[in-house]
Amino acid sequence: MGRDVMGFDFRTADGSTPTPEAFRFDCDFHALSGGTVYTHVSHTPSHYRRTTALLKDGLDEITVTATHSASGGCIVRHGRREIALPSGSVLVVAKTRAHEVLIPWRADTYTLQMPRAAIAGLLPGLEEAPLHLFAPGAPGADRVALAMSYAALFTGQGTLAGTPLVSAVGHLHELVASAIDAHWAASLPPEHAAASSARLALLQRSVRARLGDADLSLDTLARLCHKSPRAVQQQFANAGTSFSEFLAEARLERARDLLANPLERRLVLEIALECGFTNFPAFSRAFRRRFGMTPTEARALLTHR
Fold first, then answer.
1. How confident is the model over 272-285, as pLDDT tens digits?
2. Which CATH number fits domain 210-305: 3.30.70.940, 2.60.40.10, 3.40.190.10, 1.10.10.60?
């Protein structure tokens, strides 16, 4: 069984025709901007190939692919080489190069596809058919993994559009380019916009996921993200805020959203506790300063619009 999908020949791992019960290929597809696409596929063992015959289609996009499985990684073949990569490794390869990837177990595969021109515009010396392998911990692996995490974050949220989306996709291109070319990456300032924006967005996601933890602190967040408290605080400072300011604002916004939900029947006190506030009078004062009304007034107004 084979199928041409986005310029690749997809097959089962052993090339046989599977029964419907034994085959899984669940794909989330997100078209971003400027020809950049992000996909997440949950699948059974599979084998995909960019064959010599398929090279005639003229496609030249660059794909960035990471496979995650508790059972192991994948096998990459190109030319006469066969390379076993551990789970979490990233393959960056152009569609102008024949290659194949074998994933012999159930896995989740994440792929960014971007126009070659977007990377070549940053890296004028980009080879015609690049292929780069990034095992965890290898030079450049942190940048390309950051790109994948950032793409998963903003496609999952589904809130970016227009100029912010174009800017975020540009950051993805820059992160991939910096992983491919270490010399180009070294020429960038320490807090280059692409890396800084992606890291901050991931920190913000970690904070929002833990708003109900009344004891959430800078030290706790730093430990969870495997960073120093100073590095975390600097990421927020680069955006003109601080950890404590962002946490307070995120909690108030969450509380407002819950109060505006007409299906939300809990007491205002219960909502405040869920958002991490332990002092109800202090919550009410902070809410009024931020939104110009008490939580009770906000609920009455917002749920009757």
1. 999 999 999 999 99
2. 1.10.10.60
